[in-house]
Amino acid sequence: MSEPRIIPIERLDLAFTPERWAFAGERRAAIDAHFAMRQRENPALWNGRVLLMHRYAIDGGVMRGHFLEADYASFAAWQDWGRPDAGIYDCFASAAIRAADGAFLLGVMSPHTFNAGHIYFPSGTPDPSDIAGGKVDFEFSLRRELNEETGLDAGEFEPEPGWTLAIDNELIAAIKVLRSPLGAEPLRARIRQHLAHEKQPELADIAIARTPADFDPMMRSFIRAFLAQRFAGG
């Protein structure tokens, strides 16, 4: 398997151009049975609607992508079955919180979530609420996920220009670095306070990464690749 690619870009141009996802239709019965099993294991799982990218191109510092709408059960089955070639990409916005001392903050996913125990930047699969005027608004998606998961408002941060794409085969994270005037420990304390008041928080804890020595096996390879480049001065 190839190493994740880290590509800085100037902007995103993402459109909602719906079409039928053949995988979801052709494997409907198996998908429904699989999701019923997952719900028995974890009743918190909900079969909502999500947006999945079905084609993209990167040119001149711009990523242009096209998204279709699907049910979460089909998306979850596709992931559980090893992400077979099905004509889609798992593309989402991700908020890389960088503290004033240079450390990055990441969320540890709660036991009731699909990716329990995994360590990510605040992020989430885009959904139909992110569509505005035929476009898929990753800025809006990023702000929503950041607030829902951490209680922090994007207006508290200074965003770096552009985005960084972390491409790991069919997974594409559009990472926006958000710089905070606060140090890592005060930021972590604020987020933990928010989590303590949530009935069912998406995050179980906050991890701090200052150097590659802080990398954890529960961090996906694209997260480690992005952080390694940043810590090396990239």
Quick structural gist:
By secondary structure, this protein is of the alpha+beta class.
Alpha-carbon Rg, integer = 17 Å
Q: What would the average pLDDT be, to the nearest integer?
A: 95
Which class best fits the helix and strand makeup?
alpha+beta
**What best-fitting shape do the alpha-carbon axes yield?**
globular
Order of helices and strands: EEHHEEHEEEEEEHEEEHEH
Number of domains: 1
Distance between the termini: 23 Å
The helix fraction, in percent, is 25-40%
For the record, what is the CATH homologous superfamily label? Nucleoside Triphosphate Pyrophosphohydrolase
Number of strands: 14
Query: Total helix count?
Result: 6
Low-confidence stretches: none
Description:
The structure is a single chain. By secondary structure, the chain is of the alpha+beta class. The chain has a single domain, classed as Nucleoside Triphosphate Pyrophosphohydrolase. The strands form three sheets. Strands 1, 5, 6, 7, 8, 11, 12, 13 and 14 form a nine-stranded mixed sheet that branches. A three-stranded mixed sheet has the order 2-4-3. Helix 2 crosses helix 3. The chain is globular, with a radius of gyration of 17 Å. The mean pLDDT is 95.
